[in-house]
Amino acid sequence: MDFSLNEEQRAWQLKARRFADEEIRPLSLARDAIHGPRDTFDWEIIKKGSKLGFRTAAVPKAWGGDGIDYVTQAVIMAELARADSAISKTFSQCWKWSHLIADFCTDDQKRRFLVPFMEDDTYLLGSASTEPNAGSDKRVLVDSDPKSGWRLRAEKRGDEWILNGEKTFIANGPVAKLFFVNTRSNPDVSIREGTTVFLVPNDTPGFRVGKVFNKLGWRFYQNAELIFEDARVPEANMVGKVHEGYKTRGGSFSDFELAANALGVCDDAAESALRFARTEKRGGIALADEQIVQLKLNEMFMLTEALRSFVMRVAAEADGKCDRKSPSANVLAMNFASDTIHRVTELNMDIHGRAGAHMHAHTDKLVRDGIIWTHLAGDSVQRMKAVDRLRSVGKP
């Protein structure tokens, strides 16, 4: 396959690389070291990135965005993640849900929500799915079991829906101005038959943000509880049809986003290890001349390049540019990204340790950020999901 970038894609790549090097990297470690989870966030970097189009890049051109394709999105994510994975994810999280607005929302909803999203540099998006007692089971469901899946209740009263329940670990929770909220509108049937999705602004009566989680990695990236106590949402904010919310999905993008982000982290770790090995000496000999270090560097770059090929293939498939499309490649890419980021950041740590030095902040941060993939892309449920797709089609 030909993965060469066209002129527009290359321009986005260079713009993202410049922004990452000049704006994100200088503040990355300082934000990571802040103790309070709310305080790690920096609105100024979001405003600067917004003015360059990184928040709204995926919005269709008809609504004022750049309408970039999936390959371009993968390239931008990887470049931003080279400087800070969590900041990259904060921007790309908006791409995921602006896709949903474009694909599933009415023209009225687009006017009410997409227009202000385009105009406000601090307008971030989120999706409320995971709950304290319903997380991974939404991926592998017992179709006939009404107890499986989300439990946040939505009950219709006149022209409004009343929402009661709780969501947890929600991305952009304390900072987003608009959420796609998955609710259980019929608790007596399965989640596939009884889910309704609503657009819920952060100033909705009865809705509030609860605990903000203090995470080991991705510290800039905000995750929080969302609490609904008789939250009143107008009927006009329903996405799609009642009880058919499970059909409202993020598509291929949500399946390869984490792989593209992991690629940027692996690029950073491999480059960092190579620089260190070239300049650091032990007994008068550069680490790069030691065979064990050479083997580790080889493995780091080999795995990183393999991940790059996988990411670009899945992105090209999502853009419809491949003659043969694998129904399982996007999930497998996430699984591979999880294994790869863990191994590459671990090897980076090993190489820095060869000098007998204490762990330094940058190397430590890459390892901690990589741990996040265990819970997002490499967990056993995601791997079973890939096998289910393989079984359903009989081949990759």
Describe this structure in words.
The chain is globular. Helix 3 packs antiparallel against helix 7 (291-318) and helix 6 (252-279) runs antiparallel to helix 7 (291-318). It is α+β, with helices and mostly antiparallel strands and 396 residues long. The mean pLDDT is 89. The protein is built from eleven helices and ten strands. The strands form three sheets. The chain has a four-stranded mixed β-sheet, with helices on one face. It folds into three domains: 7-119, Acyl-CoA dehydrogenase/oxidase, N-terminal domain (Butyryl-Coa Dehydrogenase, subunit A, domain 1, Orthogonal Bundle); 125-247, Butyryl-CoA Dehydrogenase, subunit A, domain 2 (Beta Barrel); 252-393, Butyryl-CoA Dehydrogenase, subunit A, domain 3 (Up-down Bundle), CATH 1.20.140.10. A hairpin with a 2-residue loop joins strand 9 (281-282) and strand 10 (285-286).
Can you summarize this structure?
It is built from 11 helices and 10 strands.
Distance between the termini: 17 Å
Per the principal axes of the C-alpha atoms, what is the gross shape? globular
Number of strands: 10
Name of the CATH first level of the largest domain: Mainly Alpha
Number of domains: 3
Helix fraction bin: 40-55%
Strand content: 5-15%
Segments where pLDDT lies below 50 for 5+ residues?
none
* Structural Rg: 22 Å
The secondary-structure element order is HHHHHEEEEEEEEHEEHHHHH
What is the average per-residue confidence, as pLDDT, rounded to a whole number?
Answer: 89
Number of helical segments? 11
Secondary-structure arrangement, i.e. CATH architecture of the largest domain: Up-down Bundle
CATH superfamily of the largest domain: Butyryl-CoA Dehydrogenase, subunit A, domain 3
